[in-house]
Structure prediction request, 442 residues.
Amino acid sequence: MREAYQSRLDGLADELADMCESVGAAMRKATDALLNADLALAEEVIDGDLQIDALRDRAQEDSFGLLALQAPVATDLRIVVSAIHASGDLERMGDLALHVAKAARRRHPEPVLPESVRPYFAEMGEVAVKLARQVEQVIHSKDIEAAKTIESEDDQVDDIHRHLFTVLMDREWPHGVAAAVDVTLLGRFYERYADHAVSVAKRMIFVVTGRMPGYGTDDDI
Amino acid sequence: MREAYQSRLDGLADELADMCESVGAAMRKATDALLNADLALAEEVIDGDLQIDALRDRAQEDSFGLLALQAPVATDLRIVVSAIHASGDLERMGDLALHVAKAARRRHPEPVLPESVRPYFAEMGEVAVKLARQVEQVIHSKDIEAAKTIESEDDQVDDIHRHLFTVLMDREWPHGVAAAVDVTLLGRFYERYADHAVSVAKRMIFVVTGRMPGYGTDDDI
Prediction:
């Protein structure tokens, strides 16, 4: 019984790690689709979102089952409650990758992004995918220091995001309103994706320390 | 002991209802601040957000405490798990009201909104505040039918939000890129606020029925 319980707790961490992998892959493909107007990749991300939702459902059901049948306490309870929160954050990261993919599909075969802002999105995409991978590692390692560095990586996305606004607000922006609207929303999707990654990392700090280090899905707009 | 337990469970519902009232008031004031370039009101919302965060912290700590000490099962467990989710959604609604208030402050004394889109925001604001009030009622009444109507109210916000995009994308949009960026983000804040309200309503359906009626923080962009 005890053994089954422990393996269900470990299973929960594996499920979250799987979600990290899925939402990281989704954002990698979505960014490629966005940068290269690749319709097939965009469709792949769009079709794959249901699977991420299913992973979230499973993690939440398993968490609920553990609470109902095992009444965990102390660290174990923190693991389960954190899994409830983290699976929600990770599912949302999947949605945000989905939104990027849908933007790429909506404008296909036209590129969504004016050439001048492409590098910002290439960089935000790279950092976003890296954050998902780092969160996955932290879920397994429970390494507090690694969890903390995720927050500083997020600062990079915030910096690029802010810079993007100065580009948009420049009186000389020559690409028109429709492109500005697309760029505004897309920038926000990456920024929120990174925020949710930070939030998951903070949940892992809570699991280990019992203290929640300031809530993390806040954005700075 | 049993009595104290029951009163703590009831207290949790009261805390969520308080949060509804706070985030409803925040969005009402933020919308007024936005429509009337009212700096004092905007500051009030901005200063008040910390209190909403504190309400969320308290609801989550109380939920955790109930799980740790009482090991609730069945409906009681659903109440506590739903409170964990709902308090997160409600806190986020507070953040979105905060973003609206910050936009009003950032452009003060200039109005943020071009005259032509003001009615859309007046209407979205009205529906958003109404949704918060309806969610508060559902938390107390546990009335499934009332919870379901919240979803159709949300459709109203989605409709206005979509319409706003057609206005923005019109080649004749005469207000420039900076105004378009503001309108894009503000529209999204209202739309997300309504999505989170729906999500809380669905949690209440889960409390009563034991089934989660499709997850609700999805947006349609």
Notes: Chain B touches chain A at residues 53, 56, 63-64, 67-68, 71, 73-74, 77, 81, 84-85, 88, 91-92, 95, 99, 102, 165, 168-169, 173, 176-178, 180-181, 184-185, 188, 215, 217-219, 221 (CB under 8 Å). Chain B has a mean pLDDT of 94.
